[in-house]
Amino acid sequence: MIIRRATPQDATEMADLLNQIIAIGGTTAYQHPMTPQEIALHNIIGTDVLSSIVAVQDGRINGWQSVEQWQSEAYIGTFVRVGIQAKGIGTALFAQTCEMLRQARVPSVIALIRADNVSGLQYYARLGFVDFAVDPDFALETGRIVGRVHRKYHVV
User: Fold this and answer.
1) Rounded alpha-carbon distances, angstroms, from residue 99 to 11, 31, 53, 79, 104
2) What is the CA radius of gyration of the chain?
3) What is the DSSP letter of 27?
4) What are the CA-CA distances from residue 145 to residues 27, 29, 100, 104, 124 (Å)?
5) What is d(CA 65, CA 54) in angstroms, rounded to the nearest whole number?
């Protein structure tokens, strides 16, 4: 597996991977499919993007992770291809992300995780993220309340 910086040429495959996760539901707060252009702008080349990397194996993107700055804080998103989660891809992505954040002198990163996303909560806990807030009333557009857990990881 190769971990490398994401490029605009990766946007279509990154969008396809994310959109499959969105379609299944339950593990991301994203509720609408994203276009490759939206992925490129918000997760690869945008002015608020601090880090964007992909995990490639056999010429295929199997996961990606990006960190964006919003209101002076860094926020992380991690997406691994359906069917191959919990195989070390997310951990490998995070190791590279941390290195990039250290070089950029980003002190910490926040993960906002749906409270019903058991695998996401486990993943970020394994990495060392710690809870600092909860939003028990976080609701999807349908009105369904799923809650949200706010976790932080101190990079430096």
Assistant:
1) 22, 30, 12, 19, 9
2) 15
3) S
4) 14, 12, 35, 36, 21
5) 7
- d(C-alpha 70, C-alpha 67), whole Å: 10
Torsion on CA atoms 54, 60, 63, 64, rounded to nearest 10: 30
Do the Cβ atoms of 80 and 53 come closer than 8 Å? no
Instruction: Please name every residue paired with 135 in a beta bridge, in sequence order, or none if there are none.
Output: 148
The 3-class secondary structure across 104-121, one letter per residue, is CCCCEEEEEEECCCHHHH
* pTM of the entire predicted model: 0.91
- For the chain, list residues with pLDDT below 50: none
Q: CA torsion, points 87, 73, 69, 57, in degrees to nearest 10?
A: -10
Distance CA 84, CA 43 (A): 22
What sign for the dihedral angle of Cα 92, 107, 149, 35? negative
pLDDT of residue 65: 97
Q: Please give the domain boundaries of the chain with CATH numbers for all domains.
A: 2-110 (3.40.630.30)
pLDDT tens-place string over residues 110-152: 999 999 988 899 999 999 999 999 999 999 888 989 999 999 9
